[in-house]
Amino acid sequence: MADLLARNGISTVQPPLSQAVGYVIVVVVGLIIALVMMIITKVLKKTAGEDNEKTEMFMTANRTVRTGLTSSAVISSWLWTTALLGSSFVGYSYGLAGPFWFAAGCSPMIVFFALLGISCKRKIPGAHTSLEVVRVRYGRTAHIVFMILCLINNIFACANMLLGAAAVITAVSGMHIIAATFLLPVGVTVYTFVGGIKATFLTDYFHTAIILIIACYFSIKAFTSNQVGSIGNLFELVQAAAQRHPVSGNQDGTYLTMKSKGAILFGILHICSNFGLVIMDTSYFIKAFSASPHSVVPGYTIGGIFYFAIPWALGTIMSSVALGLENQPTFPTYPRRMTSSEVSNGLVLPYAAQTIAGKGGAAAILLITFMACTSTLSAQVIAVSSILSFDVYREYFNKLASDRDLIRASHFGVIFFAAFSAGFSTMLHYVGVDLGWTLYMLGIVTCPGIFPMVFTILWKRQSKAAAIISPILGFGTGLGVWLGTAYRFGGAVSVASTGEVLPCVYGTVASCFSPIIYSVVITLIRPQCYDWADFKKENLALEKVESDLTTAHHHHDKSGQEGVNAEDGGVQSSTLETQELTRWGRIAAGWSIATFLGHWVLWPLPMYGSGYVFGKKFYIAWVVVGIIWLWGTMLIAIFYPILDGGMQQIQEVYRGLTGKVTVHGTEKGVTGTSPSSPSGGSVSDVPHSKEPKGEN
């Protein structure tokens, strides 16, 4: 087995688990989850009218997902294998500053996306993907340019996840890395094929719950193990590790400081890359379109703020364990240190878990790696299938596509992209690319479209020429700077030189910010002014509804009665809803600024500037706050969706299964409290007092 692992270039450490365990987790558990989701999909169709043969349900969950499930899905959307493995990887490399900058590179753009999501809700509520917004405003040429950028984003995002997950599964169980790469998407393909976006939301919830429970377990197990004993003892171990192996670029060479040149460079690279991953990922827009109008801003804000604790707390604790115990006989690589290949493949977390929890710890890491990978893969798969169905098939091949046609195209997209992403990841593996390389260079391919896309939604003066040309020029600029600096610092353009931090930082920053200059200059040369009202002239929804698709179902007046139900009330309702969405937009902008200032300015920069080195008491407080925040994230992710409409839908399903409710073609025979509220409906929020919507 050691020879097999060495041949695959991952590790020469004997795997603690057998191959059978790996196959059971990846194949059997994956198919069981898929089967359960298929059953749930059928039950929801029977009892709640959630028909996944209707495109609006398959792609947008009828646009009425509540705040609790939205926030849980947002946390899950960023709960990549990269977040779990990468935060420990940078903590091992740079010390305490690494996990902090990893987390700070995630939360601000999640919260910022609430502003984009609510703006889309207000301006073009019938859209299914961000690319439809681009096409409606700028036409087909811009549509094709952004489609290519979004697909590149999804391809590299999936490769990043699969490379890290497959490497860990191989190191922990001995399963062949190519088998892991191709088998990981199987279960995802099955349940996404059947259940669409709602299945993605529900599996996100289930997977996130498992991951966070295990993460919280490790946050306690680390200090109750015999090798550590307490947070104070862990501080002593990390301090001793810095004496043995000082960190270049850190204050006094210690791991216990925020003044780390390598970490802050990684933070700059990471936040730019992640802005690209969020804004150019159509799955984020799909989830925003799927949420009810009153759930977009609170859902994304809550999700973004609580997500911060996962890479910060878990990365801090587990990287400290790896650093502190690396010279102990219980550490898997003893008596040597971890190799650069092992670190870059994300093995810091599984090795630390195995050290403090034995085979059980290794099995837990195997499980959460599988859960994180499949959960985020499902979002990527549904995103690409939406592009292939709505933006390719419907736009360029069959403008009169029916529900059945679009669902068939979506199914093809699910299967095609799952297979393609596995094949692409395999190709990268065989040319010597790993998790670390993709983590560093990701922003060069994801960032060029950031500001042109933001301007498309928020700035009415960006011209068509600017939208088309600026991302292309930005991509070329970033690519040129990246390869040029790799040659300058490395002496050659190779996998090794292009994976170094400095070339990736320079390339990512150029790729991210140069389109701002290009867009503004081109717009000044060829100015235009777009009328936002033109968005609503385009009929994008496939189902006829009684009003604005996203807001018709849940408007109540102050007395709690149904607000607008007469002819003369329609205009008043629309005006009130527009004002409400505008107010949510201002709230989103405020939270975006506050989150960025808190995570990037007020908290870390004074600590960096002062060169402060953590004392024992400060380190204990740092870790304790992280653990409390992590446990709070677990409680929010697990219980908020249940309290916010989940119990109501469970009761609804129970009544449907016991014959007390009928859905097909008739109103439900349930009286009492309305299933909707100003903050959104039930978990699915299919309107209870309306006839089922018909298709065009």
Describe this structure in words.
The chain is an all-alpha fold. The protein has a domain at 2-245 and 280-429 and 530-550 and 572-587 and 639-657: Up-down Bundle (Sodium/glucose cotransporter). 71% of the residues lie in helices and 0% in strands. The protein contains 26 helices and no strands. Helix 6 (97-104) runs antiparallel to helix 15 (309-325), helix 7 packs across helix 13 and helix 10 (177-224) packs across helix 15. It is globular and about 70 Å long. Mean pLDDT is 81; it is low at 1-9, 58-62, 544-572 and 662-696.
Can you summarize this structure?
One of its GO terms (cellular component) is plasma membrane. This protein is mostly helical.
Fraction of residues in H or I helices? over 70%
Report the CATH topology name of the domain at 2-245 and 280-429 and 530-550 and 572-587 and 639-657.
Answer: Sodium/glucose cotransporter
CATH architecture field of the domain at 2-245 and 280-429 and 530-550 and 572-587 and 639-657:
Up-down Bundle
What is the H/E string? HHHHHHHHHHHHHHHHHHHHHHHHHH
**Please, what is the average pLDDT?**
81
Distance between the termini: 58 Å
Number of helices: 26
Cα gyration radius (Å) = 25 Å
CATH class of the domain at 2-245 and 280-429 and 530-550 and 572-587 and 639-657: Mainly Alpha
GO cellular component, one term: plasma membrane
Transmembrane segments: 20-44, 65-94, 100-120, 141-169, 175-194, 201-220, 263-284, 305-325, 364-390, 411-431, 437-458, 465-485, 505-525, 587-606, 618-643
Family: Belongs to the sodium:solute symporter (SSF) (TC 2.A.21) family.
Biased composition (Basic and acidic residues): 687-696
